[in-house]
Amino acid sequence: MNSDRQKDLGKALRALRVVSGQTGDAIARRAAMSAGKLSKIENGRVLPSAQDVDLILTALQVSEDAKAEFVSAARLAATEETAWRELRRMGQWKHQQAIQAVEAQTTTLRLFQGQLIPGLLQTAEYASAVFALPPTLPEETRAKTIAARMDRQSVLYELHRSFHFVICEHVLRWRICAPSIMAVQIDRLLSLSRLPNVQIDVLPLDRQMPDFPMTCFSAHDDRLVIVETFHSELTTRDPRDVSLYLSTHDRFARVALQGDEMRELLSHIRDGFFRTREST
Q1: Which residues is 232 bridged to in the sheet?
Q2: Cβ-based neighbour number of residue 92 at 10 Å
Q3: What's the burial of 40, exposed, middle or buried (CB within 10 Å: 0-12/13-18/19+)?
Q4: Cα(7)–Cα(5) distance, rounded to whole angstroms?
Q5: 3-state DSSP call for residue 191?
Q6: Which end of the chain, C or N, has fewer beta carbons within 10 A?
């Protein structure tokens, strides 16, 4: 999106807010962003990401037709990329809060993970180990980021939402922390897997896979997909991209272990970590 389109989109968003009679502060709070950022978006000084536009439109409670117009206007910028270094500069805990706002607007979340335990399922100790990896965060920043990640997990207990996690087995064995912490983390997965609205599937190492675990992603209903790479986070609203990720999630889920069979594998992995702890 060039500068003119950026300004036009900002002006249109501002016009919608003015017509709604709501203040920038009120909309910013509902959209999980600062009033300053919203002001910059409305004045065309900041290019809003797909997440930003979605959050603002939802906060404004605009009609589906109006949403469709904005999606069409932002089509050329359907895929946004934000470098992790930029997210770290802004504050990792703020990024966690932005994701929480997206999850709060999601009825069905489908997540594929081939890198680490999903944030919504992490224990505080495991999350602490994740955020202790390079590049190292200042201690205060790390504490605030872990707390924000833990706050996100309350959404799991909202039974009108559903969650379908597909996790590669090697993720459960990938030791980024002490065996005792890994064991407790696996036990946490066992517990959460019994929630009526949470499905946790595991892709076992001994089955033929339909594809490679090239990256991890989360699909929020059929409107938005967030993809994580080593250097950045990508967000796409393009229907073709969303459809691709939804079908990829389904293909992996079809060959994954589920239910009691999955819990048997988790118990075996957990017990292995407990034995490792006892032998050290």
Answers
A1: 83
A2: 20
A3: middle
A4: 5
A5: helix
A6: C
